[in-house]
Every structure is written in C-alpha cells, then in structure tokens.
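Quick one, T. Sequence first:
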Amino acid sequence: MKAGNFPVAYPTAGFAALLFVLATMWYAASSQNSAVIYLLLFVLAAVFLVSIPHTLINLAGVTLRVESAKPTFAGDEVCLPVEIMNSSRATRYGIELVLADADKTRQRVDCIPRESAARLTLRFAAHHRGEHKIEKLDLTSCYPLGFVRASQRFVSNQTYLVYPKPGGNSQLPENRARFADNWVQQGIGHGDDFAGVRAYVPGESQRHIDWKAVARGQPLMTKEFAAETKGAAYLDFFELQIVDVEERLSQLTLWVIEAERARQPYGLRLPGIEISPALGQMHFHYCLRVLSLFRPTGYEHE
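Structure tokens:
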C-alpha cells in the first residue's frame, strides 16, 4: 500500500494545556525574577521541542496492507482486516489506524516490535448497498508525550461489497412454470443417492455431518444427496407488487437467503439479467452480487 505523503505533525489538545502552563511559568518567573522557575520553564520547553522529531520518527518504516473484506448486508458491520508492518529496527508505540471515509473509525495498537507486524480489524457500518472503495487510511501517533500528533496518509484501491438489506415476506413465491419439472436438487435427504459434501452451516442437523472426515482432522462437512423436485423457485423483479426499487431488491435478497437455507433451487430475473436456477455458495453470492450492483435507472417493465 503506497503512502500518500510524508508524516506531518499537528498540535493536540494537550498542546494547549502545555502552552497555558508555560505562559503561567513565564509570568511567575518574570514577576518574581526567579531563576529556578526560568530553569524549569526552559527545561519543559526543550523537552517539548525534542519530542516533536521523536513523534515523527515513531511512524518511520511503518506501512499498511489492507486485506479484502467479506461481503455484508446493508445495516450490518463491515469487517476490514488490516496488517500494520514495522520494517524498522526499533519498536513502535501507540499507533492508531484511522479510516477517514467511515466516520473516522479507528483502532489502536499499543506496541509493534521491530521487523514484525500487528493485525487488527476495522469495523464500521455498511449504510448502502453496492461496491464501495476504501481510498484513504491514516496512521497516527502522539507518542511519546502526546503534545503533537504525527499523521501519515496511505492510499488504497481495496473495495468491499454490500448486499441489499433483506426485508419483506419470507415465504418463497410459487411461480415455477419457467423451469423444467425434473430439476435435480442438491439437498439433504434419506435413502437418496450420495452427491458429495459441502461446508457445514451452523444450525443444521448434526445427523448429516461427515464424522469420519472430522475424525481425520478435517473441518465440519455436511453430506448431500441428490433428490428430485418438481421445479425451482423463480424470483422475478417484475412480478413484485412493490413500487420502490430498493424494497424490491430487499425482498429478492430475503428470498435468495430463504431459498438457499431451504436448499430449494432458485433462479433470479432482473432487468436485462436472467440467472438460471441453481444452488450452492457460488450461486448464492453471485445472485446477491447482482442484486447489490443493480442500477435502477433506465429499466422498463417487461
């Protein structure tokens, strides 16, 4: 990740308090003609001046690596993993990571040893659906005294995806006529042909977990079986009796979630886009991505 500029320093609220103390000491020293107070005044001012380059040096050799954030739904939290790397030969202290584009969300790292890294997660609200870009991240530090804060800006091209907020009626539509009657569904059944395994979803029955694979040290997997159904749920943007486009997308999002949870094959139709019925995580996230990136301008009812 490239640095946008060199570190800069600016005063903090503690600097105002320091100025007040220095002014008070100067007044007392001049009114009483006290050499001791003058000495304390000059020592304190010298310590402050020396702390400025130390604050700037505390960010030297510190860089960022922004990892990809998992998609989330509007109204939920975005979790952005970030690695702060210290390539210098000195330990860095009291470093804060600030995301200016998300209400100045910040996380603090107290200590990063030399030639090592610290991982943290920035959490902020996902307000709107769509693909969003993370453009600017700031590293700041007011170590060691807190009178000035050093800041360095980093530029990122990382993006994250926000799905529409689910809402509406959870009951799946029954308009299945557009799809073939003999659709082979990958689901969980009893006495059907074994079709493979997939990742375990919390809340599912543990009777179908592949316990032999677990005993071999593998992650939880659920056995799947092939079963015949009479069709697939057809999720159609144009058949919704809802005026607001965002509410339509929320309803379709909820249906996609419910269909995947019920292991019911589902297809999706939007203006200019028609997705054939299927199941699985790839199909699930592809449908949600299409809903997330949908642009309502210019569509006409078909």
